[in-house]
Amino acid sequence: QVQLVESGGGLVQPGGSLRLSCAASGFAFNRSAMSWYRKAPGKERELVANIASTSGSSTYADSVKGRFTISRDNNKNTVFLQMNSLKPEDTAIYYCYTPRFNAWGQGTQVAVSS
Question: Nearest 5°: phi and psi at 28?
Fold first, then answer.
């Protein structure tokens, strides 16, 4: 079945960086667009970034443009989210999502605090 497993979250100081990974299995990853979402306490779930299946074309939320980069390795069935210049307001649980199968990962916690 479709499975998405995130990793790479943690506690980081403001201005720091983290790289999230999402390992996918159970479906044709190289034919599927992928997304990263986040959910902060007391806030609605937010779409962070999308990446197309093969072209690598990507889109970003205004709040992360210029700081976050989504990428993918279709040979390893993995999508990444490189997060730089992190801010306290980036604190959230980050989820990997495939819209093609409406499937979510379990999430990975990112906390930005001094």
Answer: -75, 85
Please give the Cα distance from 1 to 12 (Å, whole number): 34
Contact 49, 64 (CB under 8 A): yes
Quick: pLDDT tens for 49-103. Answer: 999 998 889 999 999 999 999 999 999 999 999 999 999 999 999 999 999 999 9
Q: Which amino acid is at 5?
A: V
**The dihedral formed by the CA atoms of 63, 35, 4 and 73, expressed in degrees to the nearest 10:** -110
* Strand pairing class (18-25; 78-83): antiparallel
Give the C-alpha separation, 33 to 51, whole Å.
6
3-state secondary structure of 94: strand
pLDDT of residue 55: 85
In whole angstroms, give the CA distance from residue 16 to residue 51: 23
- Which of these, 96, 91, 102, lies nearest to 43 by C-alpha position? 91
What amino acid is encoded at 11 in this protein?
A: L
Q: What pLDDT does residue 4 have?
A: 98
